[in-house]
Batch of 2 targets.
Target 1
Amino acid sequence: MSAVIRGLGTAVPDRVVTNAELAATLDTTDEWVRTRTGIAERRIAEVGTATADLAVEAGAEALKAAGEQADAVVIATSTPDRSLPGVGPEVAARLGLGTVNAFDVNAACTGFVYGLAVAAGLIAGDIADRVLLVGAETMSRITDFSDRSTAVLFGDGAGAVLLSRGAEGDQGAVGPFDLGSDGDASDLLCVPAGGSRRPADPDAIAARDTFLQMDGREVYRQAVRRMVASSQKVLDRAGLTVADVDRLVGHQANARILDAVADRLGVAPERRFVNVARYGNTSAASIPLALADADLEPGEQVLLTAFGAGMTWGSTVVRWPSLPPG
Ligand code: UT7
């Protein structure tokens, strides 16, 4: 028994913000951002648009594509509309799913891979038959647009899949998984204030500590190391080798990180998928947005791997299914 992907949907804000637009107010250049990250532009939600709005749009598209309803909703996000409650119940209600089991998973940029594992567990445990998993973020709300080291990196968006029960080995079956974390390194990438450790008081706001801060160089180093090791582990668990991987779809934070991971694993350039140029780093939304863009062929063996704040990392494999359009 397995959890099988039946439908896919996405939503991104209309507003495109180019590197040149950011360079108008920041000490940066289009050339720096493209060469260091591969990012050309990102989408930014208009004031008043929240994570749940993007999640509802992507979720509705995934349900429509699958032609099914869901009896559980899992939202992978680290930018919920409010710090309490999570957005899962609101998204379920707005999608007309009534009083189903609905909650959020916060594993930062690894959230979608963790969410797939949670969805698979809900199905395996007979807790739900059909799970709507949405990776949805409004990273712009925790981005300090006066800090050039992070302002150029992030974007907003959402991507969703509907999973339901199938047989092991079915096209679209997700798993096995490798998931991990290193809490000793949690300060490397965090929003220092606005939680229970340090509330968002006037001092924290003045110090801009309610925005995301990152030691980019160290996160880069760890991201490569962890995604390579995690990918190798999950391939071993699946009884696959790198030669079996038709497409590597990694978390889209930086094209250089994805290339370094693929080089170390030995995945040929034409088997890597990178769309960070269009959206920047959309955290938990990046993998489903990439899956939607990658023009995957049914039957292709896809390796998913991600790394993010926590630190967290995770990988899984899926033989791509034939999906109806959203
Ligand atoms: O999604 C979760 C995981 N997040 C990530 O995976 C992000 C990981 N980190 C990265 O992608 C990269 O480390 C960055 C893109 C953030 C930075 O690239 P880098 O090649 O590691 O650059 P750096 O941090 O070593 O900075 C090099 C220089 C510095 O100047 P000095 O100290 O050499 O004079 C920075 O101040 O580039 C400077 N710099 C910039 N210059 C122009 C940093 N940001 C910018 C900028 N424009 N936007």
Target 2
Amino acid sequence: MKKNILLPGGAGFIGSHVAAELLTRGYDVVIVDDLSNARADVIDRLERITGVRPAFYRIDAADKPALEQVFAENAIDAVIHFAGYKAVGESVAKPVSYYRNNLDTTLTLLETMSDHGVKELIFSSSATVYGVDNPAPYTEDMPRGGCTNPYGWTKAMIEQILQDACVADPALRVVCLRYFNPVGAHESGLIGEMPNGIPNNLMPYITQTAAGIRKELSVFGNDYPTPDGTGVRDFIHVVDLAKGHVAALSYADAHPGWEAINLGTGCGTSVLELVGTFASVNDISVPYRIAPRRSGDLAVCYAATDKARRLLGWQAEKTVADMCRDSWRWQQSSAKL
Ligand code: UD1
């Protein structure tokens, strides 16, 4: 039987890549997005990539009556929940808005799922839930918390809410996917990340610097206890990440209860290594200067990947060079939008 998957926040960076993966594999996809951080033409682009047009509702997933209608009009089998604010710095400036939005969306979804007997949910979580007290590599059994910003706390709180919901309803099947650092873009060059304004994250800053939109990259700190002194992260290609969601859906079909699973490569790459790989595979210069550390940053963050391999039969396949090539292709094609 063809499965019908609801994607709140499905027009965004990660959601759109998951939508492409699902449509390619024959799933039906219903996207709900208020387009507060995405563009409507993503739906056209998904159709161009996959040959299938997903259903689309321009609504806020926290709007209960509107969401009710989506569930009434579509026989939803499972939900992959991406709807949420995600800018770390902004969350420090506007904590109430972050808690209101990210928690409300999730609570509304859970209530509406319950009203309609939908039991399966994959949640877009983050490695940020490991906080500052755990050493890398992060294993899923480490305690949650110690987050350095409200954005991170919303992820940790939502995980807790979902865990509690699974205790109360043993038929619920929930997987929290803890993303490491998603970068790259679809190889078609048709979908990718579109940060609003000046990017906070490293890869979009690199691509915009290479394109001449930014003068130079600030490398935040070169005195960390790492081989070259710059921060080390687990960059993962967004298409690998998307495939992890499809694997999580299959897993959740057969496994009631709550589970948290890392989606990372298990390999650390430093900021300067990423800049160097980007420059060499794309044959372009990325001017940078060393700047002070950014507050809240960790020296090293990478995943333990055994659980994803064991439970999902999934592992990341793309290289850092692939990530750099695809991010640059997207930067160049998105400039023409
Ligand atoms: C952050 C969040 C994470 C979130 C992710 C994606 C924290 C602690 N981290 O991860 O929860 O899921 O963004 O939104 O909440 N860097 C520079 N110059 C720049 C930008 C970044 O040197 O202009 C460095 C950073 O210091 C860091 C690395 O690049 O060492 C990666 O930074 P970034 O892309 O912002 O991701 P994280 O901070 O790892």
